[in-house]
Amino acid sequence: MTRDPVLSFTDRGIYCPAGDFHIDPWRPVDRALITHGHADHARPGHARYLCTDAAAPVLRHRLGDIPLETVAYGAPLQIGGARVSFHPAGHVPGSAQIRVEVDGEIWVASGDYKTVEDGLCEPFDPVPCHSFITESTFGLPIFRWRPQAQIAAEINQWWAACQRDGITPMLGAYSLGKAQRILHMLDPSIGPILTHGAAEATTQVLRDQGYALPATCPVTPDTDPRAHPGALVLAPPAALGSAWAKRFGQVSTGFASGWMQLRGVRRRRASDRGFVISDHADWPGLISAIRATGAEQIHVTHGYTDVFARWLSDAGWSAQVVPTQFTGDEAEPA
């Protein structure tokens, strides 16, 4: 008799028949295991949620009073016929890969991940398995990240130069993960750091958990930029060029994203500066992560799926593309 696969791909999301649960489902289900708090992975409407202890405050902040259970990294849980555990993904604070074992066969759903340590979130921890579900947001050889210290120096130098020129640097970064990573990279001795409400709210949730982040000043309707000379403003990308931004007068806009590696995207963003930094694995990171798992079967989701799966197949893995509704917090700008 043919045995059900440990994980299958359905119209609701990744499903485990043995445990009767879904991982990061995009339609309402009874039991949802959540890798992290970005909106394409943590959606409203599920009857029950399970995530890491570290991810829970962000999920509650974003989804409200949901029926949420938590588990520590590495702690095994028996759910029906499946043995489950959560392991650091290195993507954003609290993010996890989910290991699922049924009758000795091990699958890992990685969610989103990065393999370089950023000094803020829990470092990526490779999990040995037979089958690995990987993202491929930046699954092209052109995507290779430079050391974080170099990018931090560039951002701080830009801030200092703007300060000397009497203009305000305004840096666009996604409100969960990227904004806090940028904050961790900034040199507060240069000047004050002002934050858009969306970035500030998530930052405070993580700060309350004990993540080390510098002091910030949230921008309110009463904020007078003249009272904060030399400040850098951190805001979601959508706020750049908006009516909200106009209160700061003459600004120099920057955008922090892995997509800044591509010249065409830099032109479309029309920012003064592009800083290449991502919370997703680059090309070498994707390959090193897959090798570290020892998996023979690789299931490739959102991103450059066809190109990456073809490369993996040519390199000796059994790789296939799996359509999902995950877009990644760094979906390519139009």
List keywords for this structure.
334 residues; Metallo-beta-lactamase, Chain A; Rossmann fold; 2 domains; seven-stranded mixed beta sheet; six-stranded mixed beta sheet; 7 helices
For the biggest β-sheet, the strand order reads 7-8-9-10-11-18-19
The coarse silhouette is globular
Q: Helix count, per DSSP? A: 7
Q: What share of residues is helical?
A: 10-25%
- What order do the helices and strands follow? EEEEEHEEEEEEHEHEHEEEHEHEHE
Helix/strand structural class: alpha/beta
Name the CATH superfamily assignment of the largest domain: Ribonuclease Z/Hydroxyacylglutathione hydrolase-like
Largest sheet: 7 strands, mixed
Ends distance: 48 Å
Architecture of the largest domain, CATH level 2?
4-Layer Sandwich
Question: What do these coordinates show?
Answer:
The protein is α/β, with parallel strands linked by helices. The chain has two domains: 8-142 and 280-321, Ribonuclease Z/Hydroxyacylglutathione hydrolase-like (Metallo-beta-lactamase, Chain A), CATH 3.60.15; 148-275, Rossmann fold. It has seven helices and 19 strands. It has helices at residues 56-63, 148-165, 178-185, 197-209, 263-269, 283-293, 305-314, and strands at residues 8-9, 14-16, 21-23, 31-33, 48-52, 68-71, 77-79, 82-88, 96-102, 105-109, 131-136, 168-172, 193-195, 217-218, 232-235, 251-256, 273-275, 297-303, 318-321. The strands form three sheets. The protein has a seven-stranded mixed β-sheet with strand order 7-8-9-10-11-18-19, covered by helices on one side. It has a six-stranded mixed β-sheet with strand order 1-2-3-4-5-6, with no helix packed on it. The longest helix has 18 residues, at 148-165. 46% of the residues are buried.
